[in-house]
C-alpha cells in the first residue's frame, strides 16, 4: 500500500489548486483524477463555454455588418465552420489543462490517473474505471482525505440525456450546428449557451419553469438581457414545465394555464442545474453529515469526519470555480498548520450573457432581508462615454452601502464587458471600502470603471455626469 499525507479526489479547480498549494507547503500530496486535470471548468465548463461565446459573438458581429452598420462597415455574408471553431476551443482547453499538469508536476504532486473508490476515511483504492471490480486496484492510505469530486448535470426524469437530448458537455463540442434547439432552463448555462447558439444562427427556444429568465438575479439586472434575447429573436416559454418527448421526438411542454404544446426542434439542451458528485465512489460508506445532496462542511471545509475535507461543487452552492479554488488553497494551508477560515466578504458571480451580469456582495433586496439599513444608487452606461464608443450603452452599475457609515456592502452591474469590473467590486468589499473611498479614487477616462465611481458619488448625492 502506498502512503500519502494528503490524498485529493478530483483534479478540478478545487483539487488541483489544493494540490499545488499543499506541495508548495511541503505536504506529500497525491491527486487522483479519472479524466483530464482541470475538471469541469477547464474541460467542459467555464473555459470552453467562454470560447464558444466569443466565437458566436464574432460571427454575429459580422452577420450584423452584412448589409449595413452605423459604423460604416459592410462585410460579405459570413459563414461559420463549427468544426474548426470546436478545434480552436479544444486547443485552448489543451493548453490550459497541459499547463495545469505541468504546474502539478513542477510542484511535486503525484498525479494518479484512475477512478478513486473510498475504502475508509484513510484509505482509497484506485481502479481503472467506475465499473472495475473492487480489490483490483492500487491502494493509497492518507492522513488527510480531500473530496473535490465536483458536480454533474441534472437530467429531467422524463427525458434522460442521449440522442437529441444533450447536456452542456455535448453543447460545447458541436460537430455540426442544429437548425433549431430548445433550451430547458434559463439559468447560467441555458442563457449563456442559448444566446451563443442563437448568435451562431440556430433557432433557439427557451423553456423555463419560473416566470422569468435568470431567476437568481433581480429583475433590474435581468431586464437588459431579456431585451437582448428578444432582439436576437429567441423564443421564450416562461412558467412552463416539460412533459417529455412525443413519438416524433418533439418536446412536449405545458404552460402555467395547463395548455400543452409541442416544440419541433432538432436538439434539446437540458440545463436545469448541477448536483454534487457524491455517488459511485463509496462516499456513502463514510456516513458523512450531508446538506441536501452536498457534503456538509464547516468554515474550514472540514466534514463531519476527522481528517476528511470537502471543497468546491461537491460541497454545494455556489458552484463556481473561483470558490472551489479559494477553498482548495485554504485547506492546504490549514493542513500545513496555518490558521485560516473561509469567510470571504464576497464570492463574485458573473453571467456571461450579452449583456454580461456581475454581482458581488449584497443586492438592495438582500441587504433589506438581512435587516441592514442600506442606501443604493445606480449609474447608467447610457451616460458613460466609453460604453457609447463600444456600442453598449444598455445597463448600469449599482452600489449598495450602509446608510450610517457608508461601508460598501455590494455591487451589481449589467452591461457589455462588465465581467472585468468584478475585480474592482470584490477588492472594495474585501478592503472594507466606503463610498467616499471609491468616489475619491481617480478612475481613468474613458472607461467603464468611471460608472463605478459615479455610482458611489450618486449614492453620496453628488454624481457629476447625470
Ligand atoms: P470539478 O471541476 O467538477 O472537478 C471534479 C473532478 O473530479 C473532475 O475532473 C472529475 O473527473 C473528478 N472525479 C470525480 N469523481 C472522481 C473519482 N471518484 N475518481 C477520480 N476522479 C474523480 N464557474 C465559474 O466560476 N465561472 C464560469 O464561467 C463557469 N462556467 C461554467 C460553464 C459550464 C457549462 C459548466 C458546466 C460549469 C461552469 N462553471 C463556471 C462551474 C465550474 O465549472 C465549477 O464550479 C467548477 O469546475 C467546480 O470545481 P471542482 O473542483 O469542485 O469540481
Ligand atoms: P442554474 O441553477 O443556473 O439554472 C437552472 C434553471 O433551470 C433555473 O432558472 C431553474 O428555474 C430552471 N429549471 C429547473 N428545473 C426546470 C424544469 N424542470 N423545467 C424548466 N426549467 C427548469 O443551473 P445551470 O444553468 O444548469 O448551471 C449549473 C451551475 O453551473 C450554476 O448554478 C453555476 O453554479 C454553474 N455555472 C456558472 C456559470 C458562470 O459562473 N458564468 C456558467 C455556467 C454554469
Automatic annotation (TrEMBL):
Residue span(s) of domain FAD/NAD(P)-binding: 5-328
Q: Which UniProt keywords apply?
A: Disulfide bond, FAD, Flavoprotein, NAD, Nucleotide-binding, Oxidoreductase, Redox-active center
Q: Which enzyme class, named as a word?
A: oxidoreductase
Pfam families, sorted: Pyr_redox_2, Pyr_redox_dim
Binding of FAD, residues = 50, 149-151, 313, 319-322
Disulfide bridge partners, by residue number: 41-46
**Which cofactor is essential here?**
FAD
Active site residues according to the UniProt entry: 445
Q: Residues that bind NAD(+), according to the entry?
A: 185-192, 208, 273
Q: Which reaction does it catalyse?
A: N(6)-[(R)-dihydrolipoyl]-L-lysyl-[protein] + NAD(+) = N(6)-[(R)-lipoyl]-L-lysyl-[protein] + NADH + H(+)
> Could you provide one GO biological process annotation from this protein's UniProt record?
2-oxoglutarate metabolic process
What sequence ranges are listed for the domain Pyridine nucleotide-disulphide oxidoreductase dimerisation? 347-456
Listed EC numbers: 1.8.1.4
Q: What is written in the cofactor note of this entry? A: Binds 1 FAD per subunit.
InterPro entries from the entry?
Class-I_Pyr_Nuc-Dis_Oxidored (IPR050151), FAD/NAD-bd_sf (IPR036188), FAD/NAD-binding_dom (IPR023753), FAD/NAD-linked_Rdtase_dimer_sf (IPR016156), Lipoamide_DH (IPR006258), Pyr_nuc-diS_OxRdtase (IPR001100), Pyr_nucl-diS_OxRdtase_dimer (IPR004099), Pyr_OxRdtase_I_AS (IPR012999)
From the Swiss-Prot or TrEMBL record, what is one GO molecular function term?
Answer: flavin adenine dinucleotide binding
Report the family membership.
Belongs to the class-I pyridine nucleotide-disulfide oxidoreductase family.
Further remarks about this protein from its record: The active site is a redox-active disulfide bond.
Give the protein name, as stated in the record: Dihydrolipoyl dehydrogenase
Which gene holds the coding sequence for this protein? lpdA
Amino acid at each position: 500500500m502506498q502512503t500519502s499525507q494528503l490524498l485529493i479526489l478530483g483534479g478540478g479547480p478545487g483539487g488541483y489548486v489544493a494540490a499545488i498549494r499543499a506541495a508548495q507547503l511541503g505536504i506529500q500530496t497525491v491527486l487522483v483524477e479519472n479524466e483530464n486535470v482541470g475538471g469541469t471548468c477547464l474541460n467542459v465548463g467555464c473555459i470552453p463555454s467562454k470560447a464558444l461565446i466569443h466565437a458566436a459573438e464574432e460571427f454575429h458581429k459580422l452577420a450584423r455588418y452584412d448589409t449595413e452598420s452605423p459604423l460604416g462597415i459592410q462585410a460579405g455574408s459570413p459563414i461559420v465552420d463549427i468544426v474548426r471553431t470546436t478545434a480552436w476551443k479544444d486547443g485552448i482547453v489543451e493548453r490550459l489543462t497541459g499547463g495545469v499538469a505541468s504546474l502539478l508536476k513542477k510542484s511535486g504532486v503525484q498525479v494518479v490517473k484512475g477512478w478513486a473508490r473510498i475504502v475508509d476515511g484513510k484509505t482509497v483504492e484506485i481502479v481503472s474505471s467506475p465499473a472495475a471490480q473492487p480489490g483490483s486496484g492500487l491502494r493509497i492510505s492518507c492522513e488527510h482525505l480531500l473530496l473535490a469530486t465536483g458536480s454533474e448535470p441534472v437530467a429531467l426524469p422524463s427525458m434522460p440525456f442521449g440522442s437529441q437530448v444533450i447536456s452542456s458537455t455535448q453543447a460545447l463540442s458541436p460537430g455540426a450546428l442544429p437548425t433549431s434547439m430548445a433550451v430547458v432552463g434559463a439559468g447560467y448555462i441555458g442563457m449563456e449557451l442559448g444566446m451563443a447558439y442563437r448568435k451562431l444562427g440556430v433557432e433557439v427556444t427557451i423553456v423555463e419553469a419560473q416566470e422569468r429568465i435568470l431567476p437568481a438575479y433581480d429583475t433590474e439586472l435581468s431586464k437588459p438581457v431579456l431585451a437582448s434575447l428578444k432582439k436576437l429573436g429567441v423564443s421564450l416559454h416562461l412558467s412552463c414545465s416539460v412533459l417529455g418527448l412525443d413519438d416524433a421526438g418533439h418536446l412536449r411542454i405545458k404552460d402555467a394555464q395547463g395548455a400543452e404544446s409541442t416544440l419541433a426542434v432538432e436538439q434539446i439542451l437540458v440545463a436545469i442545474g448541477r448536483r454534487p458528485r457524491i455517488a459511485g465512489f463509496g462516499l456513502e460508506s463514510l456516513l458523512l453529515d450531508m446538506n441536501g445532496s452536498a457534503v456538509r462542511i464547516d468554515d474550514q471545509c472540514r466534514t463531519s469526519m476527522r481528517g476528511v475535507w470537502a471543497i468546491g461543487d461537491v460541497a454545494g452552492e455556489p458552484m463556481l470555480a473561483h470558490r472551489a479554488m479559494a477553498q482548495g488553497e485554504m485547506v492546504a494551508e490549514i493542513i500545513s498548520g496555518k490558521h485560516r477560515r473561509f469567510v470571504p466578504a464576497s464570492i463574485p458571480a458573473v453571467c456571461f450573457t450579452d449583456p454580461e451580469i456581475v454581482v458581488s456582495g449584497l443586492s438592495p433586496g438582500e441587504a433589506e432581508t438581512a435587516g441592514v439599513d442600506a442606501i443604493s444608487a445606480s449609474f447608467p452606461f447610457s451616460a458613460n462615454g466609453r460604453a457609447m464608443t463600444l456600442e453598449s450603452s444598455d445597463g448600469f452599475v449599482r452600489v449598495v452601502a450602509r446608510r450610517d457609515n457608508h461601508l460598501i456592502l455590494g455591487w451589481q452591474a449589467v452591461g457589455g464587458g462588465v465581467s472585468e469590473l468584478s475585480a474592482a467590486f470584490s477588492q472594495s468589499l474585501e478592503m472594507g471600502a466606503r463610498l467616499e473611498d471609491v468616489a475619491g479614487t481617480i478612475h481613468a477616462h474613458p472607461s467603464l470603471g468611471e460608472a463605478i465611481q459615479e455610482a458611489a458619488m450618486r449614492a453620496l448625492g453628488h454624481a457629476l455626469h447625470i
